[in-house]
Every structure is written in structure tokens, then in C-alpha cells.
Amino acid sequence: MKLRTVSVVLATAFLVAGTAAILARAESMKSSTGGTPWKITGELEESCSCDAACPCWFGNKPTKTTCSGNAVVFITKGSYGKVPLDGLAVAQVVQSPEGKSMMESMGSWNLNYIYIDQKANPEQRKALEAISTQVFPPAASPDKSKIQYAAITRKIEGKEHSVSVGSYLTFSAHLMESPLGGAPKISNPMIPDPVHKEYSQGTTTHQAYDDGAKWDFSNSNYMYNQFTVTNKDYEEIAAKMEHSGMGGMEKK
Q1: Is the dihedral of CA 133, 137, 141, 144 positive or negative?
Q2: pLDDT in tens, the chain (252 residues)
Q3: Among 231, 227, 203, which Cα is nearest to 46's?
Q4: Please, are residues 49 and 220 in contact by the beta-carbon 8 Å criterion?
Q5: What DSSP state is assigned to residue 105?
Q6: Which segments of 52-197 are extended strands (E)?
Q7: Model confidence over 110-123: pLDDT tens digits?
Q8: Mind listing the pLDDT tens digit for each residue in 146-162?
Q9: What is the pTM of this model?
Q10: How far is CA 45 from the centre of its chain?
Q11: Are 138 and 160 in contact (CB under 8 A)?
Q12: Are strands 83-84 and 89-95 parallel, antiparallel or unpaired?
């Protein structure tokens, strides 16, 4: 009974910590989006330093000293109010503190850098910045966070996906192949995020980053997903967390 109680407490603690991202996004939305409706359909390209599959999404510690990684969103079709976002991209690069899981250290990560597609016009840049406050967790203090503009590109050759963000980030990766056919899929991880509601699992061939931090890894975690999300999806999750009492627990 004691072991079961401890397990439940730990699981709840991890969920509360992860919920901070959703609640923070909801608060950010009120101030930065002004209630503007938005919708994006696109593809997620994500890699990190962990061995696949990344345990951080389930409240566990990274497989290396830190989880150093990125999430790049390529928008196929999208809008922010009346501002079209088709063909644009936005990326986030983060790193967790040494020896801590992403969830338990939410808000105190080593860095949280947002990269906005440099081909976006001024209106589109503001729209992507506003959307990024919901799609990406505000996981680091202001002095360790920044927004900048860069060319964000992707090249697909056969099964290999190659992504670059300016001169800062490059990675190439491919999906795993299950003996039963297709790529392994993960659904409903512990961090409640609509873009990551389900994703296919793969491994990197190589990834490198140099901007505020520096890393270089091979054969590490890779995640891919096709999605459609809206501002309502994030509002509904935040409301559910508040209603369940998680919001109150987080604010104490």
C-alpha cells in the first residue's frame, strides 16, 4: 500500500509539473493573442539528445545528463485571425537542467529559444510569436529566453528528413520500422499537448546546435507528427486542468 501511495503521489507530482506548461500557455494567450482565433495544420519535426523514445514525455529523467533538443513546426495551412500562415515555420530549442526531468524543471530550463521563419512579413511574425506562446511551453526564465528570426528549411530524401534553422541548428532523422510494419507510435504522453497527442517514433542520423548552448549527437531521439490544432484545443486543456484542481495545486 505504501509503495502504491508513493507511486500515485509521484505520478501526480509529475502531471502537475507538466500541467504548468498548459496553464502558462493559457495565461500567455490572454495577454499576447487577445483572444484572436487561430488554426494551423502542419508537420512536427522534433529531435533531442535522449535515446529513443525520449522518457521526458513521461516524467522520467533524460537518458543523458540533460535533454537538449528542438521542436520545429512546418505549417502547411494556417491562419491567425485574418493573417495567413501557409508555408511558414516556427521552432523552439530547449535544454533541461542537469539531472532533472523536463517536467520537474518546467520554468527553469537552461534555455528556451524561439526561431521565427524569416520569410514571414511583420504581421505574420507577430502571429507566429503569439501562437508560439501556446504551442511551445514558456519553460525558462526571461533571461534565458529569446525570440529571433532565421531561415527554417526542410528537405526530404527517401526516408530521411533534414531540417535546418539558420546557421544554429541542423538535424537529419528517419522513422523506425516496426517488424509488424510501419513506424512505432506513441499516444497521449503525460505532458498534455495537442501537437504531441500522437507521434511516430524514430532516430536521428545526426543533430548539431550552436547558439547559447552547443551540442552534437547521433542516433538519438526523433519524433514526427502530422496535426491540426487550434487555440480552442489549448484553451480546453487548460480549462480541464483548472477544473480538475491541477491549476490550483500548481499556483500554490
Answers
A1: negative
A2: 443 433 333 334 344 445 555 555 555 545 455 589 999 999 999 999 999 999 999 889 999 999 999 999 999 999 999 999 999 999 999 999 999 888 888 889 999 999 999 999 999 999 999 999 889 877 899 999 999 999 999 999 999 999 999 999 999 999 999 988 899 999 998 888 999 999 999 999 999 999 989 999 999 999 999 999 999 998 888 787 766 654 443 433
A3: 203
A4: yes
A5: T
A6: 68-80, 83-84, 89-95, 111-117, 145-150, 152-157, 160-165, 169-175, 185-187
A7: 999 999 999 999 99
A8: 999 999 999 999 999 99
A9: 0.86
A10: 10
A11: no
A12: unpaired
Specify the 3-state DSSP secondary structure of 111: strand
- Integer Cα distance of 26 and 24 in angstroms: 5
Cβ-contact 172, 162 below 8 angstroms: yes
Cell of 175: 522513422
Integer Cα distance of 85 and 116 in angstroms: 12
Radius of gyration of the chain (CA): 18
Please give the Cα distance from 126 to 116 (Å, whole number). Answer: 9
Instruction: Give the pLDDT confidence of 228-243 residue by residue, as tens digits.
Output: 999 999 888 878 776 6
Which of 180, 181, 199 has the alpha carbon at shortest distance from 54? 199
Helix/strand/coil for 8 = helix
